[in-house]
Amino acid sequence: MKLRHALMLGLGGAAIAALLIEPSLAQTPTPEAASPPPSPVPNKGDTAWMMISACLVLMMAVPGLALFYGGLVRTKNMLSVLTQVFAIVSIVGLLWVFYGYSLAFTSGGGINDFVGGFSKAFLKGIDANSTVATFSNGVVIPEYAYLCFQMTFAMITPALIVGAFAERMKFSALVVFTILWVTLIYFPMAHMVWYWAGPDAVAGAAKALAAATDDASKATAQAALDAVNKDAGFLFQKGALDFAGGTVVHINAGIAGFVGCLIMGKRIGYGRDLLAPHSLTMTMIGASLLWVGWFGFNAGSNLESNGTAALAMLNTFVATCGAAVAWLFAEWALKGKPSLLGMLSGAIAGLVAVTPASGFAGPMGSIVLGLVAGVVCFIMCSTVKNALGYDDSLDVFGVHCVGGILGALATGILVDPNLGGVGIPDYTSKPGELAVGAYDMMSQLIIQAEAVGLTLLWSGIGSAILYKLVDLTIGLRVTQEEEREGLDIADHGERAYNY
């Protein structure tokens, strides 16, 4: 027994001595710095939120927008509007996975400022393990989830245009125009505003620059950082802020609709006959679905389920309430009675205006934005529209284009931290984390105005060319006899109501 204890003590002492003499014999783990960092793994909560958001935005289009627009037209055109919206959603969904996603969210090489390429056409190289960056360093989501979410934006945007020329455009012409418009107008706009290399690419290049010690290595690192920043759409490079689609969706669709209603001309009987909505009940249901779905639209655009998504959600609540109340009381004061249609239109105006600002503004700033949007859009849809005499059937220009312009410009103001905003995002001053960058209100307003101006020109001129092209080939407008009969029967051979 004594011999065993002595042997154990001797062996233990020998082991300790060996470790003191040669430390490498100890089982020291390999330093983490020697191993490459593991790739980020999507968070299940973020993934679930993005899939839910995609479904919410789809609900905005069908049935939300379809019912909102359908209730505003006459009974004989109800089914045609439902068909137009549903068809657009279905067609664009296919185009998105064929080539739209690739054109919007890949590098376009020499023309990368304006449009992407075809490297991911037909979803080449994408599988269930593919990920894309969010707005936080080291955070990713499945690419399929991001692809689906952005697809719903592409689906609803051309569907918004329908309201401007409702009750008079041929279905065949609408199908051809939609295919051309999303390809040549929407996909490039989405690329110009939203495509970038991502926060981790910026952080990696910025860290390399910070670590450079001599002039040569600094120059090389600076060139690498410049290349990363250049790998972005034109308006993103300029620093334009658009959280969820003020330019890409609302101004883009609003000006396209305005151009379309001017080219097609007024409806038969406009200004003479009663062209009243056939079901404000349907319109109320549609508007309510739009509001609920818009939480996916705005809060989902954060790409993560965190505090910024909650901020966007709150702003989507309060701006909408403010705009609905503002329109209601403005109409009550000027016309003597508060209308349901006015309140619903105000709510949509508030949703449109807060879209680009939803993740940048503070709640109190969003309320002010909503109040202003309600009054401004009311004036545009009543006084200005009547004075100019154009027939924008369902006020797409007055609500979406004007509300989108107001929101895009206001974003440049409301992002100011002194006004409760979150500040300008900066990924380079503290590589690896999101910091608040330098902010100058006038400079940011100029950038926002440039984004608005480019969107108006790109979509306005481009849409006019596409309308004329379709008109010269297959014709835009139904015949007078078909318009009087109604597009339900003329285009589709069925009615919304058979009683």
TrEMBL record:
Localization of this protein: Cell membrane; Membrane
Flavoprotein keyword on record: no
Signal peptide: 1-26
SUPFAM superfamilies according to UniProt: Ammonium transporter
Keywords assigned by UniProt, alphabetized: Ammonia transport, Membrane, Signal, Transmembrane, Transmembrane helix, Transport
Gene Ontology MF: a single term: ammonium channel activity
GO cellular component: plasma membrane
Protein name: Ammonium transporter
Source organism (scientific name): Methylobacterium phyllostachyos
